Amino acid sequence: MIWITRLFWFWYLVGFILMVFWQVPDALLFSKSLFFLFFATYAFSLLIKDWTPSLMQMAWIIIPVGFLSLWIEAIGTATGWPFGHYTYGESIGWKILDVPITISFAWLAIMTTVILFSTSGPRWLRAFEAGIWAMCFDLVLDPAAVVEGFWHWHAVTVSADRSLLEILWSSAAFYGIPFSNFVSWFAVAFVLSWFYPVQETGQKMKIRALRLYQAMIIMFAALCVKGGLFWPVVLAILIIVASEWRVRHDSRGGEQVV
Fold first, then answer.
1. Going by C-beta distance under 8 Å and a sequence separation of 6 or more, which residues neighbour residue 215?
2. Beta-carbon contacts of residue 28 (< 8 Å; ≥ 6 apart)
C-alpha cells in the first residue's frame, strides 16, 4: 500500500505543477487520464486497508459503480439527461459511447473517498451525506474541467412559456453549467453509495480520505484561479472548512479528533 500512496502523491504533485503552472504538452496528454486512474486506485487502497473487504465485496462495489456511472454518462452525452447537454473532449482517454473510460474511475474515486469520511449510520443517511459531498466536489471540479477542456457544456434555449422550475433547472448561470448538473450529481452519488457496505471507518483513515478529498478540491480550485474563475475558489474554501469540521467533530459521538 505504501507504493500506491507514494505513486499517487508523486503523480498529484507532477499533475498540479503541469496543469496549474504550465501547460501539459501533447506528448503527455495521456497523463490526465492516468491521473483519474491513480486517484481511484489510491482511494480504493484506503478502503481496502481499513475495511479489508473480500474479493466478492470488492467486485460488488467496483463493477456496479463503474458500469452504472459509465452508462449514466453515456445517456447524459446522448440525451442531455440528467446532467444537461455536454460532450467530452479528447484529453482524458479512450471513449466508449462518447464517454472516456476514465470517467468511471473518476466516479469510483470520488464515491470511495466521500463514503470513507461520511457517516456510517443508517444507509439512507450515509447516502444523503455522500451525495452532498459529491455535489460539493463537482461545484469546484466542473468549472475547472471546462477550463481544461475535459468536457464542454452546450447552451440550451428555454422558451418563455416554460415554468419557472424548468427555467431554473436548465439555467446555465454558473459558468455555463446548468443547475440540473449539480442536482443530478447528488442523485447519482446517492444511488451509487448503496453499493458500498455500511461499515465503520477508523478515524485515522477518515482523516486520510478527507485529505485526499481536500487535495483534489485544492487542485481544481487552483485550475479555476488559472482560468480567472472566482466563485469556485470561494466555494472550495468553504467546502474544505466544512469537511474538516465534519470529520473532526463526528456527529455520532461529538468527540473531537486530534
1. 12
2. 18
Residue that the C-alpha cell 477542456 belongs to = 149
Each residue's pLDDT tens digit, 27-70: 556 567 788 999 999 999 999 999 999 999 999 999 999 999 99
Give average pLDDT by consecutive 10-residue segment, the chain, 258 residues. 86 86 65 85 96 94 96 94 91 89 96 95 94 98 92 73 59 86 96 96 94 97 95 97 90 43
52-74 b/e with 16+ CB inside 10 Å = b? ebeeebeeebbeebbebbbebbb
CA pseudo-torsion sign 236, 241, 125, 168: negative
Distance in angstroms (rounded) separating the CA atoms of residues 4 and 21: 25
Cell of 114: 466521500
Q: In the chain, where are the structural domains located?
A: 27-248
Q: pTM for this structure?
A: 0.91
pLDDT of the residue at 15: 82
Dihedral over Cα of 216, 186, 148, 35: its sign: positive
Q: What is the pLDDT of residue 30?
A: 59
Q: State phi, psi for 49 to the nearest 5 degrees.
A: -65, -35
Which regions of the chain does DSSP assign to beta strands (E)? 86-88, 95-96, 99-100, 151-153
Side-chain-side CA neighbours of 218 within 13 Å: the count stands at 14
- The cell numbers describing 211, all together, are 485529505
Give Cβ neighbours of residue 162 (< 8 Å, ≥ 6 apart).
Answer: none
